[in-house]
């Protein structure tokens, strides 16, 4: 099983929104073979809590315009690692330090990477 077209479309929209707010190192992984709860993990880096919240707002606004609403949010108050669960995709907005420490790319390296180039 692979990620649905809806999940891929939402991933690209979220990546574009994050990039517009200067998020860096935007990468996505098709985790549908490993997890039954979501299809894609989108990961991006930020350098401040203010930027993390701006990326969160931009992603939520962009996906809401296409009928997707976050069913769960975590980390917004601290702004160091914000998790946005849209069911089909999960967006991780991480400070550079948290991203290096937790290394989600390493954990999901066996999963196919989803191209977000069209979103940039």
From TrEMBL:
PANTHER family: IOJAP SUPERFAMILY ORTHOLOG, MITOCHONDRIAL ASSEMBLY OF RIBOSOMAL LARGE SUBUNIT PROTEIN 1. Functions as a ribosomal silencing factor. Interacts with ribosomal protein uL14 (rplN), blocking formation of intersubunit bridge B8. Prevents association of the 30S and 50S ribosomal subunits and the formation of functional ribosomes, thus repressing translation. This is Ribosomal silencing factor RsfS. HAMAP family: Iojap_RsfS. It is found in: Cytoplasm. NCBIfam families: rsfS_iojap_ybeB (TIGR00090). Interacts with ribosomal protein uL14 (rplN). Pfam families: RsfS. Keywords: Cytoplasm, Repressor, Translation regulation. Belongs to the Iojap/RsfS family. Transmembrane segments: none annotated.
């Amino acid at each position: 099983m692979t990620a649905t077209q809806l999940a891929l479309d939402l991933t690209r929209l979220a990546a574009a929104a994050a990039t517009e707010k200067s998020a860096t190192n935007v990468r996505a992984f098709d985790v549908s073979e490993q997890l039954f709860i979501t299809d894609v993990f989108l990961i991006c880096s930020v350098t401040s809590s203010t930027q993390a919240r701006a990326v969160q707002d931009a992603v939520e606004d962009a996906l809401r315009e296409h009928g997707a609403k976050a069913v769960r949010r975590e980390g917004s108050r601290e702004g160091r690692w914000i998790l946005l669960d849209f069911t089909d995709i999960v967006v991780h907005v991480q400070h550079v330090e948290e991203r290096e420490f937790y290394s989600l790319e390493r954990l999901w390296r066996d999963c196919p990477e989803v191209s977000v180039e069209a979103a940039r």
